Structures are given as structure tokens and as C-alpha cells.
Amino acid sequence: MPIKTEFTSEQRIRRASLPNHGKSYAVIPHSYVIDETKKELAAAGFTISNELYKTNLNGEVAQGIYHLNYGNDLDMGLMFAWSNSYNKMMRFKCAVGAQVFVCMNGMVSGDIGNYARKHTGTALSDATQTIQYQISKAKEHYDNLVADKETFKQIILTKKEQASIIGQLYADQEILTLSQVGIVKRELDTPSYLYNASADSAWSLYNHITYALKDSHPMRYLSDHQKVHTFFLSNLFVKTAVPAIEEEIVEEVIEEQEEFSYFEEAERPIFGVTFL
User: Fold this and answer.
1) CA atoms 239, 197, 143, 211: torsion sign
2) Nearest-CA neighbor of 85 among 28, 34, 32?
3) What are the residue boundaries of the structural domains of the chain, listed by start?
4) What are the residues whose beta carbons fall under 8 Å from the beta carbon of 26, sequence distance 6 or more?
């Protein structure tokens, strides 16, 4: 179980003691990541509107999240995030994503966020090159996330479908913890925010889930968000894309599926796609 983390100041992260793991371990200082990220964002023409930092008690594991002034979408803006460690438990990671304005939830997806660098050899220069590369693709990635958001808004889920998704993310995918499942359930019953979409839309459920992921440990924050986004893209069938003449057929199929036993239901298709 990861050590408990908390939001903190940039100064505290910079003051964290550097490790001494021997010659084979190339330290990537938190301060280096902060400076390089800010420098490269500025060089690309981005301005930072908000900075969030998270760390464990001794500063060995740290995370930075930067909200950027970019985009004309009413729901969300651009975000850059990184995670780093001094204790050999996690490689340096960084990703471009988006933040939802109303709640500042994160949204991360795709191969652009999959970079992770071992702390050996040319770690510092490689980390800088990757930060540069991801920032160079930021605008394209942002447009893709906006398109995904609009797709999720069009998908309306039944209560049973919502429960199935939450259960899959907890029991099968092991993304949500039990306490985070409780947060999602609370948000479904009494939402803390409205997301400019139907309360039963996939977009609303997505945000209830990412709201719960706000307390994810820095070692898991980026990967958890990526996995949730990939899960939604891979497993949701856009019901609104079904021709109107087929609507009744779809409803009949769902009603028939609801008559299956518990064990049969675990393998049945959910609104057109089988959960793997």
C-alpha cells in the first residue's frame, strides 16, 4: 500500500532530499522536472493558470499538475502532468491531458502519456526530450480529448450499465479502490458538480470516476486516468448512433439480457460490446 500523500507547495517539493543509490542510478530531481516543464511550456507559447503539487511525507514521490490557458471549449482546458520518485518504486512519467473546468478533474489518454523513463544513464536529457515531444503534440491531443468528451456526452447509460462499469473498474481492472467506489456512488446519488450533460450520460459517470481518482497516489495518478479513458473508449457503444428504426430491437435485446442469471450476466454483451 503506497504511503499517504498530500497536496503541498512547490517549495516543499524542491527541498526534498536527493537520494544516493549508487553510480548506476541517475537522479531526476523534482526541481529539474519543474524547471524543464515550465521552460518548455513557455517556449511553446503556453501560459500556466494553476499549479498543483502532491507528495508523500518525505518528498520521495512527487507529482506536478499544470492547468494551461489554451482551448476554446466550454467544458475543459489543456493540462500537463508529471510524476517522479527518488525511491526506485516508480519511473519518471509525464503526460498531456485536459482538466474539466467545473471540478478540475483530470483527463488523460493515448500513447502520448505512456512515456516512463528509468533513472539510469541519460535520464535527464531523455526526460527533457520527452517533455518537449509531448508538449509539441499537446494541441492535437487536446482536440482528440474534446472529441472523446462529445462522444461520451451522447451515450446514455441505464443504472445497471453504470453499476457494471463501476464494478469492472473495481473488481476486474483494479483501477478504483473500495473507498473510491464509495465516492463514485455518492457522486451518482448527490453530484458535487454538473457536467453540462445528462446526469445519466457516460460523460457524467466518467467525471464521477475521475473525481474519485483525485486522491490517487502520484505513482498511479497518470496510469489510472489513462486506464479509465481507454476503458471507456474500448467498451462503450454509442447508442445514439443506432438508427431510430432499430431502437426497439435494441431495447428488446437488453430486456432479454436482463433475464440472464448472475453468472451468465458476467459474460453477456453490455449495450453492444462485451467487457473483456
Assistant:
1) negative
2) 28
3) 5-142, 150-265
4) 119, 120, 121, 122, 123, 124
